[in-house]
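Hi W., the adenosine-5'-triphosphate complex you wanted:
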Amino acid sequence: MTLQAREVSWDRGGRLVVDGVSLRPEPGETVGLLGPNGSGKSSLIRLLAGIARPTAGVVTLDARALPTVPRREAARAIAAVTQHADTTADLTVRHIVALGRIPHRGAFGGDRGADDEAVAEALARTGLTAKAGQFWHRLSGGERQRVHIARALAQRPRELLLDEPTNHLDIRHQLDLLRLVCELPVTTIAALHDLNLAAMFCDSLLVLKDGRAVAAGTPAEVLTADLIAEVYEVEAAVSIGDATGRPQIAFTPHRPAVAPGQP
Ligand SMILES: Nc1ncnc2c1ncn2[C@@H]1O[C@H](COP(=O)(O)OP(=O)(O)OP(=O)(O)O)[C@@H](O)[C@H]1O
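Structure:
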């Protein structure tokens, strides 16, 4: 059992930005959410995180409607790193990562040893151990992004929701982060823009367009040249990598051919 969406819709300001989308990840798998700007990826992540409620359909955690799950239980199970996550307080990296432990604290405090261990592990996994004492305002954009991921990891969630987790990272850190996410025994749903990274690391993909799910399946099933032309309106050649057995996408500078009669 995992976090699932059943036919969820979200009317946001009079427009359906998520329109009847279902998502049923296998426990432990990494799901890539794809789609052009404005297709509803962040909105779906907000619904799955319980930050917003769907106007139709239901998000479930272990088959229970999310609003009926006790707040603390949901906060322990689900960690979300949303877009533009920021912190105004000027804390050190270690303090910010330790905020991920808050859902584990009871009325009489928590297990200090377990907290310290989880924070140290999250810092190490995200390559931030040497930066633990540094203040937030002295970090680069990519380092800040890794701090947010580390905070989510320190929470030791079962379900991890990531909205464009690699957008500020250099290529090494992009690869490191996605490799890490895949190795974690955690169900991860990540909105991604880079189709090659999605193909390389995700177990399955869900493609959104105008709020609707237009394709779902393994990267090889989903990432065809036709689908890329239809959804992103770009021309691409798709091959299967010898070393990876996964699709590799090479884009061309041309616009895809349009059907006769279309503008
Ligand atoms: N606060 C809001 N109120 C009303 N509509 C919104 C709001 N935020 C976003 N939208 C609209 O919802 C739609 C989906 O946006 P969303 O951010 O979910 O897309 P996305 O796929 O994550 O896009 P991107 O790749 O650009 O991050 C867009 O058309 C957007 O204009």
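The longest helix spans residues 112-125.

W.
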